Amino acid sequence: MQQKKVHIMTFGCQMNVSDSEKITALLRTIDYEPVASIGEADMVIVNTCSVRAKAEERIYGILLTMKGELKNNPDLLIGVGGCVAQQEGERLLKKIPHLGFVFGTHNLHLLPQIVRQAETGKRTCETAFIDDGSRFDLSPDYDSGLAITRSITIMQGCDNFCSYCIVPYVRGREVSRQKSDILEEIQKVSAGGVREVTLLGQNVNSYGTKSGDGSDFARLIRDVAKIPGIERIRFMTSHPKDLSAPLVECYSDVEKLCSHIHLPVQSGSDRILALMNRGYTRSDYIGKIEKLKLIRRDLLVTSDIIVGFPGETEEDFQDSLSLMTTVGYSDTYSFVYSPRPETKAAKMPDNASKGEKSERLKRLFALQKNLTKSVHDSYVGKRVEVLVEGESKKTGQVYGRTSGNRTVNFSGSSSLIGTLQRPLIIKNLQNSLLGELE
Ligand code: 5AD
Ligand code: SF4
Asked: CA angle, 91 as apex, 87 and 96 as ends, to 5°?
């Protein structure tokens, strides 16, 4: 069989990045080699995100511009996967005649046969939810080489149904992966040079509670910490309502667990949190952060905040700003609320104008810039531990992250990659830190 070439475009979250690696590995089994540009490709796969309308619109834009590519390469096969594929299904095939195939979030393992059919001109759409955990058996693409850090999927799906969120509809119910499989994969990647793992899932702290072998998330972290070669453990994303006492406890005695937690609050207003169906109050949230910070004094916290949820008043928004200051986030990922199909919030009355919402978002960004600055300033003059991940763009420098997940560039050679170093932080560069080794 002649080797063909595939170009994979990935949008959205870490789960999509991880799925794209699995897609690469699967396509290798049918003789497709990954390439970096569409120009060289026989097939393009667009792995999509539909969490906000803009992300979805962008996908349609990209698919339409691919018509141009077809002029240069009429045999180019185009496939769409991920959350937009799950949401739109057959509609995508109808709307975009030059699209070859569509596969949903639970159908990755069917790709080899879908592609083979598409090669003969048969346009397939597979979007059925398959909840037996078989999609976890897919191995990532080891052939492209392993980085120092790596995400490991431990669960998929979400049962929370936050009123704004499309994820439960496009990713389906929560399914946890077997612990033995997770540990085996981490042992393997550790032997291949990985030093830091991020345990990945839409809602990691409900790991094992609904399926799998009943192990809880805290116990999983403790078992991962025992794997030789793994120096650091992170996780993404956790839900404040499920942040359990055993998990908090891990921060006191699992040294490899990094001093960072991404704990999306979404809003600082109790009224909005209730409308969002988040299951906690502002003071529950702050209480949990305080507990964590008592245990880990250097803990850095990041968050997601939605601006302009239906009915959000200036006062509600002020509550979000004041919560940001109270917590002192090192970073927040914030977007204007975007109504999504099927979600409850999409039917809620919404009075604030687009202009008002984007003006609120600007104010939030300005506040976050100051908060990040004070976090970074507090590092200057101190030595911090950095896991070196690679060479910086600037020659003679390497980069890595602190346990609190801040990026540091410092002078050093590629021989440091994969090691823990303690550079002296000499400058706050706003988005990162500059350090020096002796
Ligand atoms: N509008 C805006 N932001 C959203 N998010 C999820 N759904 C929406 C929406 N409809 C944000 C949340 C979530 C992050 C992944 O995306 O903040 O934590
Ligand atoms: Fe969406 Fe809420 Fe589930 Fe996160 S926890 S994926 S915001 S429904």
From this structure: 120
The Cα-based distances of 258 to 120, 217, 409, 435 in angstroms read 49, 15, 19, 20
Give 3-state DSSP helix, strand, coil % of the chain, rounded to 5.
40, 20, 40
C-alpha angle 157-161-162 in degrees, rounded to nearest 5: 120
Residue 345 in contact with ligand 1 by CB distance below 6 A: no
Compute the distance between CA of residue 82 and CA of residue 12 in angstroms, rounded to an integer. Answer: 9
Pocket test for ligand 1, best of 51, 262, 348 (most atoms within 8 A of CB): 51
Q: How far apart are the first and last CA of the chain?
A: 55
44 - beta bridge partners?
Answer: 7, 78
Structural contact between residues 380 and 427, judged by C-beta atoms closer than 8 angstroms: yes
Spatial contact of 375 and 331, defined as CB atoms under 8 Å apart: no
Ligand 2 binding pocket, CB closer than 6 Å: 158, 160-162, 165, 167-168, 202-203, 239
pLDDT in tens, 337-352: 999 999 999 999 998 9
pLDDT recorded at residue 213: 52
Distance of CA 115 to the CA centre of its chain: 27
297 CB-near residues (< 8 Å, 6+ apart): none
Q: 401-421 pLDDT, tens per residue?
A: 999 999 999 999 999 999 999
pLDDT tens digits for range 68-94: 889 889 999 999 999 999 999 999 999
Pocket test for ligand 2, best of 83, 86, 166, 167 (most atoms within 8 A of CB): 167
Residue 158 Cα to ligand 2 midpoint, Å, equals 6
For residue 306, report the distance from its CA to the centre of ligand 1, in Å: 6
* Residue 338 Cβ < 6 Å to ligand 1: yes
